[in-house]
Design brief:
The chain contains five helices and six strands, in the order βαβαββαααββ. With 143 residues, it is an alpha/beta fold. It has a domain of 96 residues: Ribosomal Protein L13p, Chain: A, CATH 3.90.1180. The chain has a four-stranded parallel beta sheet, with helices on one face. It has a two-stranded antiparallel sheet with strand order 3-4. The longest helix has 13 residues. The chain is globular and about 55 Å long.
């Protein structure tokens, strides 16, 4: 019996909408990462970019469970001596909730060229409106 290998050229990519309102940030990001990788498809091949496009709406209404709003901290470094900056997730979710969602999705994708290509296919919006109506995205039924 031969093994089926998907080819990137023959992939038919679909568009899906995930609504993050009232759902945990990590659960929505994990689901988005799975769709971006293509793990929901029957022809999933780990070494081929066979995922779909994902639109995440209402990222400002995503919730963090427990005490994560006050205890979880986003760190970045400016590159200068003593340039470590930190922002609590309470501030990050109020000001840049789309960036917080993008960080969560990026952390759940593989850290190689396939993950970088998949990250280009995610579109995150703070509100319920998005500009991809022409692609006829389907609403993903979340649990």
């Amino acid at each position: 019996m031969s093994t089926y290998m998907a080819k990137k050229e023959t992939m038919q990519r679909n568009w899906y909408v995930l609504d993050a309102a009232g759902k945990p940030l990590g659960h929505t990001a994990a689901l988005a990462a799975s769709i971006l990788r293509g793990k929901h498809r029957p022809d999933f091949t780990p070494h081929v970019d066979c995922g779909d496009y994902v639109i995440i709406i209402n990222s400002d209404k995503a919730v963090l469970t427990g005490k994560k709003l006050d205890q979880k901290i986003y760190y970045r470094h400016t590159g200068w001596v003593g340039g470590l900056k930190e922002v609590k997730y309470r501030t990050l979710m109020q000001d840049r909730s789309d960036f917080a969602m993008e960080l969560a999705v990026k952390g759940m994708l593989p850290h190689n060229s396939l993950g970088a290509l998949a990250l280009k296919r995610v579109h995150i919006y703070k509100g319920a409106e998005h500009k991809h109506a022409a692609q006829k995205p389907e609403l993903w039924a979340q649990d």
